[in-house]
Amino acid sequence: MKISTFLVALMAIVLTTFTSNAQTLNQPANWPDTLWAITGTYNLAGFASDPTTTANFSYDDDVAGNVSLADDISAESPVIDLTATFNANDIWVQVTSDYKFRASNDDLDYEYWDADATMWIPWANINSNSFNNDYKTCSNLVSNTSSILDISGFTATQLSGFKYRIRYDDLASWSWGFCMSSPTIFSSGPASCVTPSALGISSLLDTSVTLSWTENGTATIWDIEYDTTGFAVGTGNNIDGVTSNPYSLTGIMGNTTYDFYVRSDCGAGDTSLWVGPFSFTTFCSPVVAPWTEDFENSGNIPDCWLQGGANQEPWIFDTVAAHIGNFGVVNSSSASGGYFAYVDDSQPHNSNTLLVSPRIDISTLTEPELAFYVISNNEGQANVDFSIDVFDGTIWNLDFYTRNTNTTNNEWEEIVVDLSSITFTGNMQLRFTVDENNGGDFADDLSIDDVTIREAPSCKVPFALSASNITGVSADLGWSILDSATSWYVEYGPIGFTPDSGTFVVANSNPYNLSGLMPSTGYDFYVQSICGTGDSSLWVGPFSFTTGCLSVVAPWNEDFESGGIIPVCWSQDSLNNEPWLFDTIAGNVGAGGVLSGTTTSGNYFAYVDDSNPNSQNTGLLSPFIDITGLTLPELTFYVISNSGTGDNVDFSLDVWDGANWNTGFYTRNTNTLNGGWELITLYFTGLTITGDIQLRFTVSEQGGFGNFQDDIAIDDVDIHEGPPCPDPTDLTVTNITNSSADLGWLEIGSATIWDLQIDTSGFGLNTGSATLTVNSNPYTASGLMPNTAYDYYVRSNCGTDSSQWVGPFTFTTDCDPLPSPWVEEFENFGAIPNCWKQGVSNNESWLFDTTGAHVGNAGVWNGNSRSGGYFAFVD
């Protein structure tokens, strides 16, 4: 978007025809005229009116856009022979036309052809006279007469070969454009009293301005006529006999547009023509505090507010916007409601987007205070930077207030700014600034409303209300203060309650612990400072919060049958970049959405979508769980993971033990059995439980091309009493030799005796060797055969009860030592030879083959090994 702010629009018009002996040249262009030529380099889309076929010449650089920068287009007249004009002593040539030009970073000019130098020469600049898009429709055109071109020094060739052109150049910028009607070129003889030119202003204030002009002759006295814009010469306010240039004009009104004209007084009744008008708008007079701006101006910038002159995009005034609050949804209102001011946090990303208030007369205030409403919600992206500068009458106090965070609960938040540290020497002014320093993010359309300057109360209003340490039955309520108050009234009640209908308490501490609340309930609270007898602040609020859930009591289970929403008292991790989802089907849960196996409850489950964005540490938290009633708590849950042709996500379970998180209590990075639902059973025997526990299920996605198929899911999370004789877990084998191995396991219960079955791999329970009863863990199995694969099963023997058999766990004994001399020729048809092993930490395997693409020189080598044939190599 392009923004141009003009305080002054210049329009130089000579009002009546110069007096001359004869007007030899008076030639209208009479557009459309095919004798005119269109030249230049430009985007045809912007060429709105062609003077060879229409009565106007216009170019819309806004439509041409930024696709084709450096648009340069001219309308050239046919040759106009000025010889007769010159011979008649009409040596002044001018062009007059009606036009609209909305300037930005572009130029609109008259140029003439120098036939001697064979080049175009600048003649007169055409000034901007539009603030809107009337140039697009060629409406409301205003007359303009060029400055004088003196041809007294022209050669015969320059006179006979004369022509002129109207040239538009956007100077390689994305600008607005212009429209001009058919021009007329005319001549005149020199006047005895030369007309002034180059009208201008300086030192513009609300009730005064300095007027200036260029004297083109020898006059030292001038006449000025001024009035509100649009007046006719002869009906305005006259100041005759002015002897100073520039001239200070006083006694005018603030926030008013004026025109002024000037003529030279050469004495003895000889005056020049009037020249003008020059238009300017005075500054606003200061507003008087107490004062509020609520932006209820039907979507327009309020009177006397200004967009920053260097803004690359504007502040916008509206009642809705796509990213105000949470995707356009706001949970509360400002004081006035309705319209607000905001900056659109989308492309282009700009810095220093300013909105400047009127000047504010605070002389009636003893201690001025600034208050305003703001809402900011980055919707999970990054915030913009917001700041307020305060002018104290002499200098700007930069960044007097700053923020870079969301407002609370997606609500409008009233901000009260203490101004007592500023020494004011005159009228104050506010400058609101948004810097979009948030990269490619676009969601924080920060907004303000109800900007107020008022007398700070003796007992100041608390601000920045908060609630922390929220439990199921209590919360710490907090606030910030600008005075020395030590006690406060607090009123609280259900969300949306009417003030004065809630429950009142006196808080003698900040923060204040409010107890006796209901779990899983939303509350509002308000606060009022108590500064002394009969001296209290205004109430501030509401601030909304929701109490937590009470701990659930085990035995307990969650089957996620909650209609596709997160179950009550479960929560997404606050750091999630994407959510856990709840559904009965999903595109890549299981084998492309096809589930094998079943859970206890069936139907709904919880899962993370393994596609963009590929996020890390996507957490799902259970409620707190009281397990004190269980002797041996057992956790079970179902999980399904199937990565298809891609990589698995990382899945983990963390356990809060009442004091600390035990991270990675359970982890996996593989498909579940057959890519279907798999029941996981866990015990907390390795943890020191000091209070209610909590579970956190976490998924971290791998990213990369093709890694989107492992939508891992969980279901039926259950904590219950474990069996009286629980199964052992985590079977291991260590210290393997050619005839023995140490068999180990994790005892979950209190068993000290275990039953073992061990035999060659593949045997069925109770079909192999006799059951061994052992009292050591690990247990050394001896008398084994070398280079033989074995399975073993184990169960806990609790005396009157036994666990289930667990296993098989498979291992292979070592080979017997080979006798020497010994040789290995690797002639094993591409398989690793008996009694050889790949390294346990290998990231790739040794290969066995008779060829290799890069063995030798690109697979070709000289000579052979002794055996030839197969060999071992690493790719």
Summarize the structure.
The chain has 875 residues and is mostly beta strands. Strands 2, 4, 5, 7, 10, 11, 13 and 14 form an eight-stranded antiparallel β-sheet that branches. Strands 23, 25, 26, 29, 32 and 34 form a six-stranded antiparallel β-sheet that branches. A hairpin with a 4-residue loop joins β51 (650-656) and β52 (661-668).
Overview of the structural elements:
The protein is mainly beta. It folds into 7 domains: 26-188, Jelly Rolls, CATH 2.60.120.200; 197-281, Immunoglobulin-like; 287-455, Jelly Rolls (Sandwich), CATH 2.60.120; 463-546, Immunoglobulins (Immunoglobulin-like, Sandwich), CATH 2.60.40; 553-721, Jelly Rolls, CATH 2.60.120.200; 729-813, Immunoglobulin-like; 824-874, no CATH class. The protein contains 4 helices and 64 strands. Strands 2, 4, 5, 7, 10, 11, 13 and 14 form an 8-stranded antiparallel sheet that branches. β40 and β41 (535-536) form a beta hairpin. The two termini are 59 Å apart. The model is unreliable at 1-22 (pLDDT under 50).
Helix % is: under 10%
Sheet having the most strands: 8 strands, antiparallel
CATH class category name of the largest domain: Mainly Beta
* Tally of contiguous helical segments: 4
- Work out the number of β strands: 64
As a whole number of angstroms, the C-alpha radius of gyration is 44 Å
Unreliably modeled segments = 1-22
- Taking all residues together, what is the mean pLDDT? 90
CATH fold-level topology of the largest domain: Jelly Rolls
Give the percentage of residues in beta strands: 35-45%
Number of domains: 7
Class by helix and strand content? Answer: mainly beta
The quaternary organization reads as single chain
Q: Indicate the overall shape.
A: elongated
Q: End-to-end span in angstroms? A: 59 Å
CATH architecture of the largest domain: Sandwich
